């Protein structure tokens, strides 16, 4: 298998040759490939996944909009109507990958713009850019320019394509009018498969160089409803040699998850885009991304690492919003992977980099959990516990969304402690006492109550947490899992700290249980993964999380022992985050060589062509794995950068650079937007 990975990496490297990557912000490809993986254009609400086929997109993913995956199944994030497929004909011939040259695709991470360009025969050059507008969060925007090399006739068709899983689609075309302003509206409204939601998609053409509201200045539009599942709008135009022609296809997609009247709201967003000058609309989008990039990581001397790190950070920004109180699923808005549910992947892996770099987004992630605390309290009661017990997989409801056959949903309980850790860390970084009073402490108090009720007191006065699935999911239904116990200890300690911060009296039993929860060790001092562990292969890091991020195992010799023991036991098909934890620990131990080896190992075998989208594991093909991106970014921030989150806020201690890098600059850290520069 290692040889297979090497061959894949060599092939991937050959694809990357010729890319325009020198600015550290753009990634390009000029070859179509098998197993193509595009980079999603997303704004935290919708994700638009490009295709290598001209004028097509693979899918539109709608954040926090769920329907049942099957009649007896659990919830699954909704794939929206596809509004991104255009059809362009020049002189009566459809433009496709088969009749163009100079095909190229470029992702501009700075502006979140995905551009495709080509030359159609010797007749015209074409370029179009896909945006998921950051400022108009339910809308997509496809900006097209055709430059003829000779006089030619074009026909352009925009489409709303509705998957046949939708029910009762109603596809229409209307021209709305307000005095002299006319607004052509192509629209499809349908019910999701089991009719939980009404979904409405509205689209239109925009001509940025004319007054789009004046019908006499626009080309004549032709509507054709091929079926209720394929609704189209077209125009034709004669173009003159060397005179560039620009138009936009824009669409908005709304559902009853977010709107009582999604049909009318989708119309309003499209009318806003129609009548707002393109220059102004895109300037707002770019300004919001410029603000996001105030939190940035700059690597000098290793362009490939720079691009890899920025692509990871781009995805975390693209999959989230600071104004949403929503969270991020493992595959973000790139696919329906893991049903779009929310796991510990957010709190343990994606959240820490965002907490350092963007506290607004971090606040949304923690608020997502506190908005669902009542369901967590109900779950605790239903299973015979106290406090709040969070689901392993969460959706819009806050109830358990894991398929019943998966033991993780019933027994992987460390998620509840992971959430507590994220909450206290938010306060540590922001010192927002009002938030701590209203959301932070109520959460920490309920989680502490849960762990007290979840722990079993042994005859010797110690406490055990029995019958769990730990971070290593290869070992179900074990007692005293190292990470589960360590996370519970930390959650109880943080609840006590929060109480004291608010000058409240901590519950005495929190401290007693925290100090007496058992961790098990082999005779030579190596930490046992659980009470019954006998050296089996593990899925991912578990014991080593006691050193980072929990800071329970702090003795250097002990950290090294655990590292050396567990790294060889990692399954090759396991997710990338284990390598990230090991890399951070080696960096903190001062071993930059081992840290850099594991930094690369944490993601390079997982890169998929042609842009470097990350799959979950070296042996899988399910990009984009935002969890792996979070782990990789933690290596840079908390490993090489030496940053740490403490009760005193963000501190820096013993940063270290790989020899391959000349310098590392980390910008926009914490509320004060500090810059840290690390050099040799």
UniProtKB/TrEMBL annotation:
InterPro entries: 6-hairpin_glycosidase_sf, 6hp_glycosidase-like_sf, Gal_mutarotase_sf_dom, GH65_N, Glyco_hydro_65_M, Glyco_hydro_65_N. This is Trehalose and maltose hydrolase (Possible phosphorylase). Residues 310-533 form the Glycoside hydrolase family 65 central catalytic domain. One of its GO terms (biological process) is carbohydrate metabolic process. Residues 58-247 form the Glycoside hydrolase family 65 N-terminal domain. The keyword Hydrolase applies. Keywords: Hydrolase, Signal. GO terms for molecular function: carbohydrate binding; glycosyltransferase activity; hydrolase activity, hydrolyzing O-glycosyl compounds. Residues 1-18 form the signal peptide. PANTHER family: GLYCOSYL HYDROLASE-RELATED, PROTEIN-GLUCOSYLGALACTOSYLHYDROXYLYSINE GLUCOSIDASE.
